[in-house]
Amino acid sequence: MSTKAEQLEEIETAVPNVARIPAQNNVAFAWFAGSLASCGAVTFTNPFEVVKTRLQLQGELAKTTPNMVRTYHNVAQAFWVIGKNEGLRGLQKGLGPGYMYQIMLNGTRLGFYEPVKNMFYRMFTGQPSSTQNSIMPLNVAAGGLCGVAGAALGSPFFLVKTRIQSASSFAAVGFQHNYKGAVDGLRRIWREGGLRGLYRGMDAAMMRAGAGSSVQLATYDHFKSYISRNLAHHGLTNNSAYTHFLASMGTGFFVCLVMNPFDVVSTRMYNQKAASGGGHGGALYKNPLQCFYKTVTTEGFFSLYKGFLAHYLRLGPHTILMFVFVEQIKALGARYL
């Protein structure tokens, strides 16, 4: 007659291994962790997104002159002006659709990054990825693909978020859509342009997210692997919160450097008035390439880096908070699920 321990062992042996996949390696859990972590991060960084949006739209397609009147001079002054005249609600404009965009973008990016990366590694190396065989081009390709997919899913929310954040009764920049809220904005966009209207500017958003994600996910992977390999004797292991913090700091700068030109173009493509007659293009730009061209030829090359500091002050902390949160959520999942 077998003992209780032997019976339990027989039951555990009979359960297929697939049923005991760790939560932190499960795509659904990774999607949940990425969504929750990014929503937590954007709660703190959304005011800098408002500032960045207005700095990028200010002086749109206007040649810079010494006498040009600018409402927003720099990040600190813009933050103060918006806070003083519009209050905390002004600084947190677009937070609701911002949450939805983060769920669509980062849930997809972080949920599917590891499976897509492993697929690429098996295709080209015959084995799954690991910290010992990290290949940057494959990481970049996986991150870019996941970012493009997430941007496509979240595009309508980024569209309405941008238009809400640019609106101001005190100091208007760019075209003013004057939505009462996210739901009103989505309803009006649908009424005026249907499905095409909701996805206007998606091509620019996919370029933006593809560039940002390929750098963000790949460099974060690389920094984390490098730190854990070389500084483990100082306690900076792969699962250390300090490792995640340092990797995020380095990642945020490089992402901002690569993504800011695409971010300026994306902001302008989203915020422009629809073309008369309901055409696919907007009133100012027909497509992202024309937006790049008109912006550079009218305002100069460095106009593509408008709002860079605000972008980094949003993206840097957002990257740090998001990756620290997601790593801790995964750790909790490994412990309790």
Order of helices and strands: HHHHHHHHHH
CATH first level? Mainly Alpha
Q: How many individual β-strands?
A: 0
Mean pLDDT: 85
Strand content: under 5%
Counting DSSP H or I runs of 4 or more residues, the number of helices is 10
Detail the poorly predicted runs: 7-23
Broad structural category: mainly alpha
Overall form = globular
CATH 2nd-level architecture = Alpha/alpha barrel
For the biggest sheet, the summary is:
none
Fold and architecture overview:
- Its main location: mitochondrion.
- α2 (27-57) packs across α4 (95-124) and α2 runs antiparallel to α10.
- The protein is mainly α and 337 residues long.
- It has helices spanning 4-14, 27-57, 75-91, 95-124, 136-166, 182-198, 202-230, 241-271, 288-299, 308-336.
- Residues 7-23 have low confidence and may be disordered.
- The protein has one domain (24-336): Mitochondrial carrier fold, CATH 1.50.40.10.
- It contains ten helices and no strands.
- 46% of the residues are buried.
Task: Indicate the topology.
Blueprint: H1 4-14, H2 27-57, H3 75-91, H4 95-124, H5 136-166, H6 182-198, H7 202-230, H8 241-271, H9 288-299, H10 308-336
Helix pairs in contact: 2-3, 2-4, 2-10, 4-5, 5-6, 5-7, 7-8, 8-9, 8-10
How would you concisely characterize the structure shown here?
InterPro entries: MCP_dom_sf, MCP_transmembrane, Mito_Carrier_Antiporter. With 337 residues, the chain is mostly helical. It has helices at 4-14, 27-57, 75-91, 95-124, 136-166, 182-198, 202-230, 241-271, 288-299, 308-336.
